[in-house]
Amino acid sequence: MINNKLSAFLNEGFGGLLTAVISDIKQHIVSLRESGVSFYGYAAMPPDYATEFDPTSFAVAFNCESDIDEENKKKPYYRYSVDEWQNYVHDGFEATNAELKSILSEFKTLTKQQDDDGAVEYLAPSINKTLLNALMSLRNDGTFEGIAYVVIWISDSSDEIINQSAKSLNSAEVYDEYASEFC
What is the pTM of this model? Predict the structure, then answer.
């Protein structure tokens, strides 16, 4: 059971995080394109608060067609499983990580007032919803133009945000291919 202050905090939408994610990812995409990298897939990788309680571990991954071994090119698992991708980036997301740190600090302050050690289960869905909104904004404004597959990915997890983001951020065809392996 969460208290009213914590509930209000979790439902406020984390506008600073939304802005930071949009800005950091836009800068990263521009940097990749300016360096001539051509990629088909892009994943936002938030911290998994169930297993690692590090608020400053936001990362992204991207994959190029050339990163998939020839014998695996037609297998959805190798195309859509971010765990199989070659390119992980942990640097350049300082604004996002600062917002995550601020959110976690406020969350800890609010949860000190209750006796529920399991309260962290409420934090991840609120953060992930904000991340999905940021990625949807980037998809809609053309930042992800030419990128066939965009997802929120948490390694070794069955968190519902993975499938939800795959469905919300991609064409029906790409989602169907993804779902043939993961749903």
Answer: 0.92
